[in-house]
Amino acid sequence: MKTYTRKDFLTKGALAAAGTGFLASCVGGESEANASPAIHTGKTYKWKMVTTWPPGFPAVGEGANLLAQWIEEMSGGRLKIKVYGAGELVPAFQVFDAVGSGAADIGSGASYYWAGKIAAAQFFASVPFGMNAQQVNAWIYSGGGQELWEEIYEPFGLIPMLGGNTGVQMGGWFNREINSLDDFKGLKMRIPGLGGKVLEKVGGTTVAIPGGEIYTSLETGVIDATEWIGPYHDFKMGFSDIAKYYYTPGWHEPGTALEVIVSKKKYDELPADLQAIVRTAAFRLNLWTLSEFEAKNASFLQQLLTDDKKFELRHFSPEVLTGLRATTQEVLNELTASDPLSKRVYDAYATFQQSIGGWAKITEKVYYEGIMK
Ligand code: CA
């Protein structure tokens, strides 16, 4: 991309050119290089969408249904998508393989679910002490993240796109106070991904439990703690009735990106207008999902904090967060030392995070410090 000087920006022509570039980047950015026919034939395409979410699951399952609806509306019915919840066509964690193999055409999930297959994929979902939702969006859409993501999914026959974000999650529900890093020793917690690796490094034990069994496990003491998402989903899980403490913030998931994956073969068969519709619908889903999480988390937090609440809302202390952050760096160092692709993606992620963090430090940080007393 051309770098504009200050003088360029002051000319009308440069402004128009910059505007065009911006719009192009908003619908995928590569349409001019696309070899697919621009004129559609009226042919109707029928796709199957598989998801890692239970059918109609709040925000994320609902989002998959909306994506299909929007694509059908925008295409005038020329691209119809039938959505299958987890287990309806394939199990949740086979979504990546199903779309890659052509058994399904499009999928919805989160890239850390495929960490066992491509460790580097998890950097496109969430990194403990990593970027928040708007920073992840900036990295993917405007900071080179999309190109890198497409490159690492290409061998699997997949095109990845952002398909939502949870926003900052909560730290989880605990039946034990966490006043120092030592309090994690012996703690049995349901916490997946890189966050789970960090917990293990500070002496805790991670327990893998399906969503439907977490409540009973916490109630009966099989686990001492669990993280889930945020107040909206946590409220529906009922954890507030059986846990003593609700800790903030979700240091392990500060802005988890959800993804839409599309079969590259099926995408390439579409005329250019339908390709643009798929990408534009994913953009809309990304914004809709984050908005849904933010609005609902805010109102459900109020609902959780009613007068008859049985739990205490707690903040992890700065010392606990500093310790977890240092441990996170150890986990990331080990991962990137053992996997060159993870190193490449993490280096790109960390470089962008450092840059955008410097910007946030003199804008949002100062702003929030000034208004939130
Ligand atoms: Ca979570």
Structure description:
It is globular and about 65 Å long. The chain has 373 residues and is of the alpha/beta class. It folds into two domains: 45-167 and 255-294, Bacterial extracellular solute-binding protein, family 7 (D-Maltodextrin-Binding Protein, domain 2); 169-251 and 312-338, Periplasmic binding protein-like II (D-Maltodextrin-Binding Protein, domain 2), CATH 3.40.190. The strands form two sheets. A six-stranded mixed β-sheet has the order 7-6-8-5-9-11, covered by helices on one side. The protein has 14 helices and eleven strands. 46% of the residues lie in helices and 13% in strands. The longest helix has 33 residues, at 272-304. Helix 9 (231-237) crosses helix 11. Calcium ion (CA) binds at residues 169, 227-229, 253.
What's this model, at a glance?
The chain has 373 residues and is α/β, with parallel strands linked by helices. 46% of the residues lie in helices and 13% in strands. The strands form 2 sheets. The chain has a 6-stranded mixed β-sheet with strand order 7-6-8-5-9-11, covered by helices on one side.
- What ligands does this structure carry? calcium ion
Strand order, sheet with most strands: 7-6-8-5-9-11
Secondary-structure element order, N to C: HHEHEHEHHEEEHEHEHEEHHEHHH
* Overall structural domain count: 2
Percent in helix: 40-55%
Q: CATH homologous superfamily name of the largest domain?
A: Bacterial extracellular solute-binding protein, family 7
How is the CATH topology of the largest domain named? D-Maltodextrin-Binding Protein, domain 2
The 3D shape can be described as: globular
User: How far from one another are the termini?
Assistant: 43 Å
Structural class based on helices, strands and sheet pairing? alpha/beta
Question: For the record, what CATH class of the largest domain applies?
Answer: Alpha Beta
- The gyration radius over C-alpha positions equals 22 Å
Which stretches of 5+ consecutive residues score pLDDT under 50? 13-33
Largest sheet: 6 strands, mixed
* Beta-strand percent range: 5-15%
Number of strands: 11
Return the CATH architecture of the largest domain. 3-Layer(aba) Sandwich
Provide the residue-averaged pLDDT. Answer: 91
Instruction: Figure out the total of helices.
Output: 14
